[in-house]
Each structure stands twice: as C-alpha cells, then as structure tokens.
TrEMBL record:
The lineage of its organism: Bacteria, Bacillati, Bacillota, Clostridia, Lachnospirales. Belongs to the peptidase S8 family. This is S8 family peptidase. Residues 103-304, 432-564 form the Peptidase S8/S53 domain. It comes from Hominisplanchenecus faecis. Transmembrane segments: none annotated. It comes from the Bacteria. The active site is at D112 (charge relay system), H180 (charge relay system), S509 (charge relay system). InterPro entries: Pep_S8_CspA-like, Pept_S8A_subtilisin_clostridia, Peptidase_S8/S53_dom, Peptidase_S8/S53_dom_sf, Peptidase_S8_Asp-AS, Peptidase_S8_subtilisin-like, Peptidase_S8_subtilisin-rel.
Length: 576
C-alpha cells in the first residue's frame, strides 16, 4: 500500500517530500477557516491573504499550469549578487552628537542563505549574540517555531549557550554555506569593529534570520532551471515572512525586512502573490520592507515589443548556446491586447501561430531536432488580469531561435517577454535585441516596498547591472539608489565561495541591505523622540525620497536612479 495515497501523511512530510507539489491559495475568509477546510492537504496560513496546500503529485494532471493557474504555482527566487556609510549619510547619523542613532530597539529581518552566528559582526563587545531568533528551515532535528511544521528555531539564549562552547555548532548546527545572507546582515546591522575598520549601518539593532530551504526538485523541473542554480520557492519565503512578523510581535519592536531575492517569473507589475503579500505587510504598523531592484539590466533577458496593426508580426530572436538543457519564457501584455506565438528553429522548421485559446496547452515536437516546446495561454491571468503566454523550451537546439509574435487584438500593441533570471539558464541564453529597461525583478515591483537600485559610491556611476524601471504597467521603480558596488562586509566562515573574515561584494541586494539599516536608524530616531514617533512604511519611503541627493544633470524620477541617491543625513536636515 503506497504511503501518501491511502495512509495519512503529516504536514511536515508533505512540506519536505518531493511526492507533494506545493500550491499557493488565496484566503477569502479567516485563516482558521482556511486551515480547517483544507486540513487534509496540510493547509497553512502564510502571509495576509494567502495560504499554502500540498497536493500528491499522482493526482496532478500533466497540464498543471492551465488546470491550477499560473499565480498558484510557487515561483522560484534567487540571490541578487554576486566608505558606503559616509556617502549615504549614515555615518553622520551614527556619530553626529545631536543624533547618534545606531538602531536600538529595532529588529532587522533577513530571509536568505542563513547567517554565521559565530562571526564577530553579529556579537556584542562581550561576545553575546545580537541575533534575536534564527529559523533554519533546512534542519529537521531541532524544534520548529511555534505554529510551523518544519525546520529548527534557535533563540538568543540557545545561541549564547552555543557560543560558550568550544564548538558552537555542536548544539546549533546552522551554517551559511553560501555567505550571501551573512554579508547582507553585516552590511545592514553588523557590529562596529574598529580594529577591522568595519560597522554595519545599524550596529545596535537586533537581528532575526531565516535560512531558507532549497526549492523542491519537482518545482525546479517544472521551470527547467539549471541543476547548479540557487533557488528558493515562494511558499517557503511566504512562511519566512510570517515568521519575521511573529518575532516582531513577540519582541514588541518595529521590524525592517531586508529582501535580497528576486526572479524574472511573474507579471512585473506587482500583482503576484508574494508581491501582493509584501505590499500588504508594508501597510502594517511599524513594519518596513526594503527590496533589491535586481541585477538584470545588461543580461539580455528582457524583450520589449510594440505592434501598430494586426496584419503585422514581430520576430523575437533568442540565442541558445551549446549544452542548454532547457528554459522558460513568459510573454505578458495588458488588456485588451492579445497575442499569438509561432516559431522557427535554428534548422529552419517553422511552426505557424498557435491560436491563443484560454486554457490551451500545445506541445510541439520538432521533426529534425530533439526539442520539445510547450505553449500555454492564459488570455486573462487570474492575479494580474493581463495576458500570459508561458513557454517551456526543452532540449533546445543550439543556435538562433525565432519566436514570431502575432497580434490578434491590439490597443497599445505593447508586449514584454522575459527569459529566466541570471543563473537559472545558461549565461549566454539571451535575446539578440534585448531591452535593459523594465528589468526590475519580482517582487520589487510591488508599490509599497522601498525598491533600491545600486550605484558606485566611489565613482558616482550607476552599477552596470542594476535593474531599471519602470514596472510593466508604468509605475515608478526603483525608488532610490544606494551604494552597492564593492561594499565592505562580513564573510561567513562556512562559505564555499570566499575566505572568512571580511571582504567586498556588489549588487542591488547590498544596496537594499544598506537602505534597510538606514531605515532602522530613522525608526530608532522616532522611538527616542518625545513623545515616541511611529512612522508608517509610506512615510519612511517618502522621507527617503525627499532626502535623496539629486543631480542637476538628470530629470527625476527616472528609470535608473528613481528619485536620487540615499542620503539619510539630509532627511534630518530637512526635518530639523
């Protein structure tokens, strides 16, 4: 008798097992009603408005996208990277006698690759841990957080006890093998260490860290991402957000969330489940969300098209290198525009336009090649209302593939196509005529989050890969630009990619971390005011924009810099 069909399976097993496919489900009633109604599917309320269920894969149809719907399938997210304090006005706020704020009384939350809790950057001068809570989703041997079904939680007391041992990992075996999470946490909240000439932006804040578990293979296979790609799934990220909020309620402290992940999957207009969840969270009292714009500007992963009449078509060429095992593409358009897709292989085999019928999935096997392409249409995608054409390209023949876009109904005639984010496909899989604009990654297109581009504080130039706005529907993003090139931070002792200690990294997740730390300083100022001042996320975002440094040679806002560069001290000058 096969387990999972006839025998009961715990929610924990469903979360961890490859036999179960995780799905995102909108919650229309109460969280309790949702969990009771879908109890046998391991239902968990995650973030406001959304829950998670787990379905045995044997019960899922082959055309899962059209039966379940695109927005209900968890998307895959990856990392945004590969004298900043002074240029951003943070150092003056830390040291100026009338200010002197360093983040006291504020939690900064990270959901990433984990944190090296043994590193001096996360300890006080007497060696105690500055980490309030650590949830490692990858370790199943400990006790899961209250209300969660997997992973192991370590409190500040657990971490301090471990640090007193000769081998701290003996009782807290959580390590950051990648190092990305530790670096971001150090930039935002690292302890001031004069001997190492180092300080984070908010060195006296407290830290909450979540080490995300890797995405399931069944989801990686669905999106055809590379075996070596670092990928985390939307459901685990949603539960990590819920955990951060739970910790803030327990500590009764304001929470700044630093989001250093992103994806090219999604509508790029802020209506996917995770983006909407972050938008909702940003409207909660004393919760602030800072997110990385992405590093996609020069990668060749975005195509912009515009059609003038329905009698024409546009050829979109994709260069596919040797050894590319497969990739996905997503075409998005706004109503009432409607498009169909045809294609021509590198060997010249032509597929005429496939009619854009709702719920249709067409699988095309090429006669002279081993390539199989599945084309799925959602004329009205349920979350965004736009048209989605989803293509799964399996075993593509190397060379130049042509995808012909045929307008069937047009108003603006505009469409966008995205290839996978860097790392999910081969490096040279790209559009031959790509467009660097509209490359802000999801979920940073969400209106409420503070979205950060990256610039070089030493030269004043924009980071060459920093993703550019606006959103697909024309909303202003990024909001500001922060230092994100060769920024100094902590290296994880367990990192497989760099020597432990300190080093320099670049990317928009670094600029997001710096901005998160700056936000914590401003929140700290509000807490110490008389009477205490509790800002909303919208206020903080507006103040960062108001205080930003702007060049007389540029018009603002713009696609590259948003409203200017971060200058925290200038906000205080304006206010005081």
């Amino acid at each position: 008798m096969e387990r999972g069909i006839f025998m009961p399976v715990s929610t924990t097993e469903k979360i961890l097992s490859e036999d179960y496919f995780d799905l995102i489900v909108p919650i229309t009633g109460s969280d309790t009603d949702f969990e009771e109604t879908f109890f046998r599917f391991g239902a968990q309320a995650a973030v406001p408005g959304y829950g998670i269920i787990h379905i045995n894969r044997q019960f899922l149809p082959d055309n899962i996208l059209n039966v379940i719907g695109y927005s209900n399938i968890p998307k895959l997210y990856t990392l945004m990277d590969t004298s900043a304090l002074e240029s951003s006005g943070i150092l003056k706020v830390q040291t100026q006698p009338l200010l002197g704020y360093q983040g006291e009384g504020v939690l900064i939350g990270f959901l990433d690759t984990g944190i090296d809790f043994t590193h001096p950057a996360f300890r006080t001068s007497d060696g105690r841990s500055r980490i309030y809570r650590l949830w490692d989703q990858t370790i199943q041997s400990g006790t899961a957080p209250d209300g969660f079904f997997y992973g192991s939680e370590y409190t500040n007391e657990n971490l301090n006890a471990a640090l007193n041992l000769e081998d701290p990992l003996e009782t807290v075996p959580s390590v950051d093998e990648n190092g990305h999470g530790s670096f971001l946490a150090s930039v935002a909240a690292g302890t001031a260490l004069p001997l190492q000439d180092f300080s984070g932006a908010a060195p006296k804040s407290e830290i909450v860290a979540v080490k995300l578990k890797p995405a399931k293979e069944n989801l990686r296979d669905f999106f055809l991402i590379r075996e070596s790609a670092v990928a985390y799934q939307e459901t685990d990220i949603m539960l990590a957000l819920r955990y951060l909020l739970q910790c803030a309620r327990q500590a009764q402290k304001p929470l700044v969330i630093c989001f250093g992940l992103g994806t090219n999957q999604g509508d790029h207009s802020g209506y996917m489940p995770l983006a909407e969840a972050l938008d909702t969270i940003s409207r909660m009292n004393t919760v602030y969300v800072v997110s990385a714009a992405g590093n996609e500007a020069g990668r060749g992963h975005h195509f912009y098209g515009k059609m003038e009449n329905t009698s024409d078509y546009q050829n979109v060429e994709v260069l596919v290198p040797e050894n590319e095992g497969g990739f996905t593409m997503e075409l998005w358009a706004s109503p009432p525009d409607l498009f169909a897709v045809g294609m021509i292989s590198p060997l010249g085999e032509t597929i005429p336009p496939i009619p854009p019928r709702a719920g249709s999935v067409t699988s095309i096997s090429f006669l002279l090649e081993q390539t199989v392409i599945e084309v799925s249409y959602e004329p009205v995608e349920i979350a965004s209302g736009g048209q989605l054409v989803f293509l799964r390209v399996q075993n593509p023949t190397p060379g130049i593939w042509g995808f012909q876009i045929y307008p069937r109904q047009i108003s603006s005639g505009i469409f966008h196509i995205w290839l996978p984010i860097s790392g999910f496909a081969m490096e040279n899989t790209r559009f031959l005529n790509s467009n660097p604009d509209t490359t802000i990654v999801c979920p940073s297109n969400a209106e409420g989050v503070i979205t950060c581009a990256a610039y070089n504080h030493a030269t004043g130039g924009l980071f060459i890969q920093s993703s550019r706005g606006y959103t697909r529907t024309g909303n202003i993003k990024p909001d500001i630009a922060s230092p994100g090139v060769e920024v100094y931070g902590a290296r994880s002792s367990a990192s497989k990619f760099a020597k432990p200690g300190f080093g320099r990294e670049s990317g928009t997740s670094i600029s997001a971390a710096l901005t998160a730390g700056a936000t914590a300083l401003f929140v700290n100022w509000g807490l110490q005011s008389d009477p205490p001042r509790y800002f909303t996320n919208r206020e903080i975002k507006s103040l960062l924009i108001r205080g930003a440094t702007r060049s007389s040679n540029l018009l603002y806002p713009n696609r590259e810099w948003g409203y200017g560069t971060l200058n925290l001290y200038q906000i205080f000058q304006v206010l005081l």
